[in-house]
Automatic annotation (TrEMBL):
Pfam families: HTH_DeoR. Keywords: DNA-binding, Transcription, Transcription regulation. This is ArsR family transcriptional regulator. The keyword Transcription regulation applies. Signal peptide: none annotated.
Amino acid sequence: MTNEGTSTRDQILHMLKVKGSLPVSDMAVELGITEMAVRRHLNTLERDNLIKSTLVRQAMGRPTNVYSLSQEADELFPRNYSHLTLDFLQDIKEIDGLSKIEMLFRRRENRLEETYRSHMQGDLEDRVAKLAELQNDKGYMVEWEKDENGDGYRIQEFNCPISQVAREFNQACSCELSLFRRVLKANVEQTTCMAKGGDKCVFQIKEAK
């Protein structure tokens, strides 16, 4: 896609975010381009599930389509969940102590284990591959490989969606390590951690003895 196309697409998304649902005619006037050009961009955005259309009846004339952002498009705009989460966790720590923080992270670990365990089948390699897939779905940008000596596996996470929380509350990291051990039913050790200054998180995995 050209820079011009990308710019127009972003303008449409911003317009729908600020002004709400709009017909093609209003967008064309706002952007200073033809309705046909607007429709081309809308087709692409609709294909990418970033907008949705609704047929609206008018007092006179035919019904017309109006366009609005989808839930998926909301994720393109800035979010500040990590600061909100950190504020809540700090408040809980001050009110109820560190033990309550530990309990919250363990409850999260237990929920994830229940979800992940239903996907874990086959030998250790199958389970490692499935765990990497599940973590990828959560935005961890995971790669996995077999050790060169053939007696284990390595999982590498190049992104941590909860990195700001993990830097303040290392319980997030220890619970992730515990989760991996439980769902893989294997010996798992973490050798590199982003929350402790590493450029990625690395886990070494071996069959449980």
